[in-house]
Amino acid sequence: MTDLSQPGLPGALPDKRQVAASFSRAAASYDSVAALQRAVGLNLLERLPGGMTASSWLDLGSGTGYFSRALAERYPLSSGIALDLAEGMLQHARALGGARQHVAGDAERLPLRDGCVDLVFSSLAVQWCSQFSSVLSEAARVLRPGGVLAFSSLCVGTLEELRASWQAVDGGVHVNRFRLFEDYQRLTAASDLEVLALQRQAHVLHYAQVRDLTHELKALGAHNLNPGRPTGLTGRARMHGLLQAYEHYREPQGLPATYQVVYGVLRKPDPSGH
After folding, report:
1. Closest by alpha carbon to 162, among 211, 233, 235?
2. Which of 177, 183, 189 is nearest to 226 (CA)?
3. Any residues with CB less than 8 A from the CB of 9 and at least 6 apart, and which?
């Protein structure tokens, strides 16, 4: 039974081949619009256990390598692996350095040997994985005893303003689907890893116009990738309806876009007690 068949998850996640292709196309534009991604990743770095050392680490879903470079600075004597599904992202990251190795791979089937890293760091990547239980078991497999998995992801409630505005227009699937926070609680508790912390935090961005948000999502490669999404161009009347519906959310700072971010820090038990 997959995670997606569990009660409460609203529909299927996107096809990973489409995710990889979309993020590969976005490699050159990604960093220019990735303010939220940087903020969330920095928050995740701050959540790592105090005094933690890592002689080797894995940046899982490494994208352009921004946090591979941050991890290399944090652990200057370490050996790092950057792994991503999107070859276009890896090509971009290789040119900028940070990790010793750049590997194309899937978080649900890591092409790495058992017990090879002290830290698995994954920021805003695992929301694209259909079986989060496989991500957890693979992280447990490649971690050494006492090693840490630190991840951030997105859950239900993300881009709710955009979703509700589209629902008011045509009821179609226009916004990516995400797991419930309760699914993250259940799956981490059932894993072979000890949960040190698991929290949900809202990050709200503001935009002058809806198009600023939709253009940013496209530049990130994170625009609508859902199965069942509308194909073809969005008609002028539907777009006008979206703009009108979204205006109901306008605040003094602009149009809000809420991201519900999950932060998790888990540890692989060490039988030796070290």
Report:
1. 211
2. 177
3. 3, 177, 179, 180, 183
CATH 3.40.50.150 fits 12-158+176-205+258-267, yes or no: yes
Beta bridge partners of 153: 262
Joined together, the tokens standing for residue 245 give 């519906």
- Dist. CA 61–CA 86, nearest whole Å: 9
Instruction: Determine contact, residues 139/193, Cβ cutoff 8 Å.
Output: yes
pLDDT in tens, 102-111: 999 999 999 9
Give dist(CA 268, CA 273) in Å, integer.
Answer: 11
**30 contacts 220 by C-beta, under 8 angstroms:** yes
Is pTM beyond 0.70 here?
yes
32, 100, 36, 40: which is closest to 64 by C-alpha? 32
- Reported as half-sphere exposure (CB side, CA atoms, 13 A), residue 149 has a value of 29
Q: What span, in angstroms and rounded, lies between the C-alpha atoms of 151 and 221?
A: 20
Calculate the dihedral angle through the C-alpha atoms of 115, 119, 125, 126, rounding to the nearest 10 degrees. Answer: 50
Instruction: Give whole-number Cα distances, 78 to 63, 100, 102, 254, in Å.
Output: 20, 9, 15, 43
Q: Over the stretch 87-122, which tens digit does the pLDDT of each residue have?
A: 877 888 888 878 999 999 999 999 999 999 999 999
Of 68, 71, 69, 97, nearest to 84 by C-alpha is 68
